[in-house]
Specification:
The structure is a single chain. Helices cover 38% and strands 17% of the residues. It is an alpha/beta fold. It has 3 domains: 186 residues, Rossmann fold (3-Layer(aba) Sandwich), CATH 3.40.50; 161 residues, 3-Layer(aba) Sandwich (Rossmann fold), CATH 3.40.50.1220; 186 residues, Thiamin diphosphate (ThDP)-binding fold, Pyr/PP domains (Rossmann fold), CATH 3.40.50. The strands form 4 sheets. A 6-stranded parallel beta sheet has the order 3-2-4-5-7-6.
Length: 582
């Protein structure tokens, strides 16, 4: 401190102090010269709050921050240096932006005294990252760093959460500046999402209630917004009070436990029973759901004649391309609370009116289970994906979290894995659906989950993309379990080539690898499973290992005709030329 209530410190020290006050737990990234004072400040504070975790690719840092934010409900932090460090963040930040995940990224920039002189690694990184972010803030004056960081925390967690980038020139981070003591403060409401809630408009709410009073077969279509709002108790209360069933997107999985009698599970391109209930519904309610391509089977699933209530925190998503009868611009939790309150004393009548609907759901769920039990418990070798998903359901405790890499792993588990409880018990990176999320996502999720177990399912292709960060998990002694779906292929691509191009396969085969042996050589716990009867003991063994990561290498079918998700002819997607089933 220099003088009365004045701090003199580097910009990097100010960044670290603001993160400490904010309560940040982790920052994921790779150092470069521009932000070294920030790293030094963290080191001198004992690398505790926040703890900086070195990753092996900045993209992995962004993915880890994203997964941490999803599971914790807090802001995730990552960093990258000037040029390639900043641009390597792009894919991970696009995922967070598209999925509404609060992530703040710090990027170093060139010294302002020499900018545009072709400095080493200098690039137009602000122009590259600006379209991704809710806001890109370039810090032009050192003393304003605390102000800009407070703004970043608020922007990332309010409205529809998202990405904020702080672009910090070298001379700002390295220079010493004077800061009034009271500049180092934060708004506690911005420490988790949502930091601000909005209630629905009264007249529109009454219109929605009137539609619901008349509906005999209403259906809630729930997307990832339920997680951003934390509306689990309100959703359950709403469904149970009115006997309104719900179905979820891949991102909405975990809104209710999958075994809840009013949960129809996944709808869209792949489903169990939900799609037929959508087609026979007399009222649809979209809750935190964007009516995207996969969930609507490329915009063909939702009947145009069925009245639709759309509830979303992002007003511009309401009626984007889907005709709505009532649009409620609101937080999911407050909307459900207010809509149920508006129904009021009519709730018991509605519940009784829909008792037959509830009974019909139980019959359909039982029929589906009986029809597919043979596949779910299959003893065939190589291992059937349905059996793997079934064993994951059996192995996971109620507080367990399943994280699925983009593509193959996400579709199969979204369809067939049963989330054991409400909450972020299933995480899939469906904002941009990039593969390579599984390894770093598992790191971020496990750190956020604390003692609760995390199992990250990834294909061999996805694991190959980010295998280097298995070293990160080993070095940090993070007890995440990785399940590798080993089909020696880019499974989705090969499955589509089989369906569309008469078995002509190009650039979709991978080398046969023993990932368990690779894991053991690196220092992780490795188990290879080729017999389906060994899946359960392998999962138990891995979940009990709490001092290091475990890798379960599961050998599944090499038959491209059976690589696309589904356990029977009804759920096996029928691919047509020009169609895009993923």
């Amino acid at each position: 401190m220099n003088g009365e209530n004045i701090f003199r410190m580097t910009g990097g020290e100010a960044m670290a102090e603001m993160l400490r006050i904010y309560g940040a737990e982790y920052v994921f990234g790779i150092a470069g010269f521009q932000l070294l004072p920030f790293y030094d400040a963290i080191q001198r504070a004992g690398n505790r709050r926040p703890r900086h975790i070195l990753v092996n690719d900045e993209r992995s840092g962004a993915f880890a921050a994203d997964a941490y934010a999803r599971v914790s409900g807090k802001t995730g932090f990552c960093d990258g240096t000037l040029g390639p460090g900043a641009t390597n963040l792009v894919t991970g930040l696009v995922e967070a932006s598209s999925a509404g995940i609060p992530v703040v990224a710090f990027i170093g920039d060139s010294n302002r005294n020499h900018s545009t002189k072709n400095m080493t690694q200098e690039t137009r990184q602000a122009e590259i990252l600006s379209p991704i972010a809710k806001e890109l803030i370039r810090v032009e004056r050192g003393p304003r760093l605390p102000e800009f960081m407070r703004r970043a925390f608020g922007l990332a967690t309010s409205g529809r959460p998202g990405v904020v980038v702080l672009n910090i020139p070298e001379d700002i981070a390295h220079g010493k500046w004077e800061f009034p003591q009271d500049d180092f403060s934060i708004d506690p409401s911005t420490q988790s999402i949502p930091s601000r809630r909005i209630r629905p408009d009264g007249p529109e709410l009454r219109k929605a209630a009137d539609l619901l009073r008349q509906a005999k077969r209403p259906l809630l279509l729930v997307g990832g917004g339920v997680h951003l709002s934390g509306a689990y108790a309100e959703l359950r209360a709403f469904c149970e009070a009115l006997h309104v069933p719900m179905a979820h997107t891949m991102s909405g999985k975990g809104a209710l436990p999958c075994n809840h009698p009013l949960c129809l599970n996944l709808f869209g391109r792949y489903d169990r029973i939900a799609n037929e209930f959508i087609k026979t519904a007399d009222l649809l309610i979209g809750l935190g759901f964007k009516f995207g391509e996969i969930a609507t089977v490329r915009y063909t699933l939702i009947p145009k004649e069925t009245p639709l209530i759309h509830i979303d925190i992002c007003a511009e998503e309401i009626g984007r391309h889907q005709k709505v009868a009532v649009g409620l611009w609101a937080d999911a939790r407050t909307a459900l609370q207010d809509l149920l309150e508006e129904i009021g004393s009519d709730a018991p009548r509605q519940k009784k009116m829909r008792e037959t609907l509830r009974e019909e759901i139980q019959i359909k769920k039982t029929q589906w289970r009986e029809k597919n039990l043979e596949r779910l418990t299959s003893r065939e070798r190589p291992i059937h994906m349905a059996r793997l998903c079934h064993e994951l359901t059996r192995a996971m405790p109620t507080d367990g979290i399943l994280l699925a890499d983009g593509g193959f792993a996400a579709h199969w588990t979204a369809l067939l894995y049963d989330a054991p409880s409400a909450g972020r018990t299933f995480v899939a990176n469906r904002g941009n659906a990039s593969i390579g999320y599984g390894v770093p996502g598992g790191i971020g999720a496990q750190l956020a989950a604390k003692d609760a177990p995390v199992v990250a399912v990834t294909g061999d292709g996805g694991f190959n993309m980010s295998m280097g960060d298995l070293e990160t998990a080993i070095r940090e002694r993070i007890p995440v379990t990785y399940v590798i779906v080993n089909n020696a292929a880019q499974g989705y691509v090969k499955g589509l080539q089989h369906a569309l191009f008469e078995g002509r396969y190009q650039s979709s085969d991978l080398k046969e690898m023993d990932y368990a042996e690779i894991a053991r050589v690196m220092g992780a716990h490795g188990i290879r499973v080729e017999d389906p009867e060994k899946l359960a003991p392998a999962l138990r063994e891995a979940l009990s290992e709490r001092s290091r990561p475990s890798v379960i290498d599961v050998v599944v079918t090499r038959d491209p005709a059976r690589m696309l998700p589904g356990v029977d002819a009804r759920t096996q997607v029928q691919v047509k030329p020009g169609d895009r089933p993923v």
